[in-house]
């Protein structure tokens, strides 16, 4: 749902729950002070940081939802090329 006033301020909300019970609900305001949102969720991996003036309220995911940890490749991004092979330009710099 969304509504606006005569000054151009917009307020609204939306949300959903997936078949596994993971939910997200967002209330937002856009006015002369900018865009602000409040997010309530139990999505796996959701932290409580508040980037970009967004208030986040995280809850544990429902039982049975698989929480995957992020995978970080041990090699840096400077490997370049295909299959980890350095490009000709990178090899010349070595």
UniProtKB/TrEMBL annotation:
<keyword id="KW-0193">Cuticle</keyword>
<dbReference type="GO" id="GO:0062129">
    <property type="term" value="C:chitin-based extracellular matrix"/>
</dbReference>
<dbReference type="InterPro" id="IPR000618">
    <property type="entry name" value="Insect_cuticle"/>
</dbReference>
<feature type="region of interest" description="Disordered">
    <location>
        <begin position="73"/>
        <end position="94"/>
    </location>
</feature>
<dbReference type="GO" id="GO:0008010">
    <property type="term" value="F:structural constituent of chitin-based larval cuticle"/>
</dbReference>
<protein>
    <submittedName>
        <fullName>Cuticle protein 16.8</fullName>
    </submittedName>
</protein>
<dbReference type="Pfam" id="PF00379">
    <property type="entry name" value="Chitin_bind_4"/>
</dbReference>
<feature type="compositionally biased region" description="Low complexity">
    <location>
        <begin position="84"/>
        <end position="94"/>
    </location>
</feature>
<dbReference type="InterPro" id="IPR050468">
    <property type="entry name" value="Cuticle_Struct_Prot"/>
</dbReference>
């Amino acid at each position: 749902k969304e509504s606006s006033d005569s000054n151009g301020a917009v307020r609204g909300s939306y949300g959903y729950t997936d078949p596994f019970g993971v939910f997200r609900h967002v209330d937002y305001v856009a006015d002369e002070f900018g865009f602000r949102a409040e997010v309530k969720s139990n999505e796996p991996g959701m932290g409580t940081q508040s980037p970009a003036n967004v208030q986040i309220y995280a809850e544990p995911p429902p039982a049975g939802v698989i929480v995957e940890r992020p995978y970080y490749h041990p090699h840096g991004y400077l490997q370049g090329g295909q299959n980890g092979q350095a490009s000709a330009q990178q090899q010349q710099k070595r």
